[in-house]
């Protein structure tokens, strides 16, 4: 992109453009200055910018559109960020022009004058007037909107007039606004040339299947790009009052469980160990385990299993909308799966080899085992014989873990259906065995157990190895109690997840996949925690 500026533009700051704000995006000088001189510096500092580990080459304007109501005009920009590593990403940035000095420097993107009116261009989401316009456009959306910028409203949205709006909190990849203390509007920052899975799944579950344990879909905002493809810009859901997410909840519960080892003078070596992947009811749990763990954790796991099964039942009981109808395993799926996993596995192998020097103790021991058994692990991924599988594939959550689940009183609400961040939008919509979600949750249980040990090491009297041993005993009971409820619920609804042998194969396969996936993140950002996915991999390949 050329950095050359037109002679008609004053080079001092602020720039002055003799053009109305309503026509600013048609001004080539403005677009050139804005994209090349200003945005690069601004965008790399944003929390939602996902290209921090790559080198930015240049930014192009892919699309722009007006977000307006009556005389009030804002612009939505779709920016194409190109990297030296020969790939690109798209981001959504809405902009507003304000003359109000009270905007902090961090909010300002560009100081400039428009027809001698001095002011700043800012990210419009920081402006209450903009947030109000988007809310009102969704609230007054008309059915079958054929315009380029489309606002949609669910019949469940009986919204009153705009009262207030505020930021939801520090999110990484999106920006969410709470309206009237009752609704959440999520602006997607990373944009894909397709409908966002979060929009599709949220709308399907609440409008078509009346699934109660997810925040109800209320509305959305989309645009059609130059190729006539739908792009989801924002999604509105109800705000579910809650006591936090299931991750924090389980960390507190597990802390009590580990404190009980000392408090109740429990002999870890004498604890009865459950068989792997055995479906258990609470009445099947040995008294020593109940005495140690308590009933509450297991009751909560049963509720979570029931809600997970109900989500899959809703996703697996559609016979009209082809994007949601269940389908069988086949050769195409197998080729897609193996290619994806072998590429990811090679990537993680390289990461382990390059980071061995950061590991010690059990983590180093397990990393060496991982390298020694690499051919066996690769063979596990390749030995996916779809002709032997009788179950069905469904649209699934795709990134299911304790952090995606809200706790409300004694119940759980499932949210964030965007899918796995590393995957392409197309891959996120591939139908998968529902046990892939269950495997993701099991890996999350494993993480929560180890995170509790790492976070509270100083307050426990036992050694780390003893706590790991107790944690592995607890882990098996959590999985088994979950399966005891989940499988019964699924089978009662005639959702086909295969017979017992097939279920165990799919669970182990998906848990191995998930643990290998996790390994990349841990080695890059917190090597001390690499022991968690490494232990998960070891558990599966040795049994």
List keywords for this structure.
disordered N terminus; alpha+beta; seven-stranded mixed sheet; 543 residues; 19% strand; six-stranded antiparallel sheet; Phosphorylase Kinase, domain 1; single chain; globular
Kindly report the oligomeric state of this protein. Answer: single chain
- Give a quick account of the main beta sheet: strands, pairing sense, barrel closure: 7 strands, mixed
Overall 3D geometry?
Answer: globular
Rg from C-alpha positions?
A: 26 Å
**Mean of residue pLDDT values:** 92
- Secondary structure tally: strands: 17
Count of individual helical segments: 14
Strand content: 15-25%
| Span of the ends, CA to CA | 56 Å
Helix content: 40-55%
